[in-house]
TrEMBL record:
Region (Disordered): 246-277, 334-355
Species of provenance: Lynx canadensis
Record-level GO BP terms: regulation of cell cycle G2/M phase transition
Pfam assignment, any one: Pkinase
Single GO MF descriptor: ATP binding
Protein name: Protein kinase domain-containing protein
InterPro entries, sorted: Kinase-like_dom_sf (IPR011009), NEK_Ser/Thr_kinase (IPR050660), Prot_kinase_dom (IPR000719), Tyr_kinase_AS (IPR008266)
Length: 409
């Protein structure tokens, strides 16, 4: 269902009557011509009879645009057929409806004549408080003529002839259809259609100007957008080149300054470098540490081998000096490894992510010691091992292996 904007024609009648105003001639004909065109479409195109055409069912929109509404009682009839239902508003009903006679499209022509009369006088042509008297007036078509002086003589005569001789004729056969009614006001209708044609041409010209203006603005906007994109591309390219050149030059300068500063640093103020320099420095320090530990292990192995050879050639009774010398060597090796380990820990202090590397345990060397000798001094060895490795969480498996080796024999 469509929402119709505007107000009913009946409200306009009430408003003008309160203000004691009248419809101007141009507005009166404009509304009536549109009403005739609407009825021609219904009667000739769709064969529809409205049957309740009143001022309250005619909406006036913007610029008096006429819209016919309320088709609840409308009926579509076959060609040359008649309707017999008594429906509609009695003030605008034709005589044949009141007499219960068959009727057709000319019932709407009678209602259109009543509306034209009311637009000219602001009062319905037939009115009475008594329904019987009202029906009598309608059947006999008795109404007061259009007063003179309100409109021009030509308009008054046209309205009078339309109402009395045409639209409000009691005889349905003598009453004209909507096409004949329109032909009686053909000069007014042609003038109205000419105004419509002029307005349409003006609107088309305005629309064409707006279309050309919009097209011109659109093309100009496209050109500006393309130009802007090109300038932005050139600007970004130049900015990228300048940034790359400046970054490369600044990068080379900063690298040279960092290398010169790192070369001037003394060994006491050593700081852990970052990235690849850090890895390289750590590898050098660890390689030196490994080399020192290997030398210590070689010295320990050689000394212990000499002692073991001496102990094999001597008797078991004279093994006490060998025992003391062997374990003194082990103690010295553990103390030396512990001292070296502490110095390495001090050297690595302050390094980022650095961790001291523990010295290698001479486990193989300990396993070569005869079990009786190891059994006698196993507690002392445990104390030395734990004291030297307490900061590195000495695995318990090493001590267990030493105890098992000492208790074999």
């Amino acid at each position: 269902m469509e929402l119709i904007e505007g107000a009913p024609l009946g409200e306009h009648f009430s408003s003008l009557k309160e203000k004691q105003h009248h419809f101007i001639e141009e507005r009166l004909w404009k509304i009536f011509i549109q009403l005739c065109l609407a009825l021609r479409y219904l009667h000739k195109e769709k064969r529809i009879v409205h049957r309740d055409l009143t001022p309250n069912n005619i909406m006036l929109g913007d610029k008096d645009k006429v819209t016919v509404t309320d088709f609840g009682l409308a009926k579509q009839k076959q060609e040359n057929s008649k309707l017999t239902s008594v429906v509609g508003t009695i003030l605008y009903s034709c005589p044949e409806v009141l007499k219960s006679e068959p009727y057709g499209e000319k019932a709407d022509v009678w209602a259109a004549g009543c509306i034209l009369y009311q637009m000219a006088t602001l009062n319905p042509p037939f009115y009475s408080t008594n329904m019987l008297s009202l029906a009598t007036k309608i059947v006999q078509a008795v109404y007061e003529p259009v007063p003179e002086g309100t409109y021009s003589e030509k308009v008054t005569d046209t309205i009078s002839s339309l109402c009395s001789l045409r639209c409000l004729t009691p005889d349905a056969e003598a009453r004209p259809d909507i096409v004949e009614v329109s032909s009686m006001i053909s000069d007014v209708m042609m003038k109205y259609l000419d105004n419509l044609s002029t307005s349409q041409l003006a609107l088309e010209k305005k629309l064409e100007r707006e279309r050309k203006r919009t097209q011109r603005y659109f093309m100009e906007a496209n050109r500006n957008a393309v130009t802007c994109h090109q300038e932005l591309a050139l600007l970004s390219h130049d900015t990228f080149e300048k940034a790359s050149l400046s970054s490369s030059s600044s990068g080379g300068t900063s690298l040279k300054s960092e290398l010169s500063e790192s070369a001037d640093l003394p060994p006491e103020g050593f700081q852990a470098p970052c990235g690849k320099d850090e890895d390289r420095a750590c590898d050098e320090i660890l390689s030196e540490e490994t080399f020192n530990l290997e030398n210590i292990d070689k010295d320990m192995y050689s000394e212990l081998d000499e002692e073991l050879d001496i102990s094999d050639n001597s008797s078991s009774s004279s093994s006490s000096p060998v025992k003391e010398s062997t374990f003194s060597i082990l103690k010295r090796s553990f103390s030396a490894s512990g001292g070296e380990r502490q110095s390495q820990t001090r050297d690595f202090t302050g390094g980022i992510g650095s961790r001291p590397r523990p010295a290698l345990l001479p486990l193989d060397l300990l396993l070569k010691v005869p079990p009786p000798m190891l059994r006698a001094h196993v507690k002392e060895l445990e104390a030395e091992l734990v004291t030297g490795w307490q900061s590195h969480s000495l695995p318990a498996v090493i001590l267990r292996n030493l105890r098992d080796h000492g208790s074999t024999y």
